[in-house]
Amino acid sequence: MLSPDWLPATFSKVLHKRREALGISQEELSKRSGLHRTYISDVERGARNVSLKNMGRLSVALEVTPSVLMRWSEMVYAEEMVDFTTTTVRYDNSFRPDMFQTRHSATNEHVLVIEKETCCVDEAS
After folding, report:
1. Do residues 15 and 44 touch, judged by C-beta distance below 8 A?
2. For residue 11, which of 19, 62, 83, 102 sits 20 to 30 Å off, Cα-Cα?
């Protein structure tokens, strides 16, 4: 079972890669977003969670929409190639909602189960 922390961990990588693709420092991202440089550093290390408000600030500073940042996170998790230098994002079925399933645990709590599929490509086509 996948850790429930997969998204913050993956999002932190995306934030770092996009910042590098733009050629800006954490200090510059801090100025653009209005967020403290140590907060940016903590997010990139996966030590802090990002609120929706701060995701909006970061997306504006990184010149992409929040949905692009989320899609890139899904793609990184699915081990797909991501071009962080563009704002064009491919949407396909590599990361599907049916990968998320809930079930009851022994303690009667809802548990999120994420199943990761391995996808094979027929190179002959």
Report:
1. yes
2. 102
Average pLDDT over residues 76-81: 87
Domain residue limits at 21:
6-92
Sort residue 51 into left (φ over 0), alpha (ψ -120 to 50) or beta.
beta
The 3-state DSSP class for residue 49 equals: coil
> What is the mean pLDDT of the segment spanning 95-116?
45
Instruction: Give residue 98's identity as a one-letter amino acid code.
Output: D
Beta bridge pairs of residue 112: 102
Inside any domain, residue 54: yes
Residue 86: what pLDDT? 87
Radius of gyration of the chain (CA): 16
pTM: 0.71
Domains contained in the chain, number: 1
User: When comparing pLDDT for 88 and 12, which is higher?
Assistant: 12
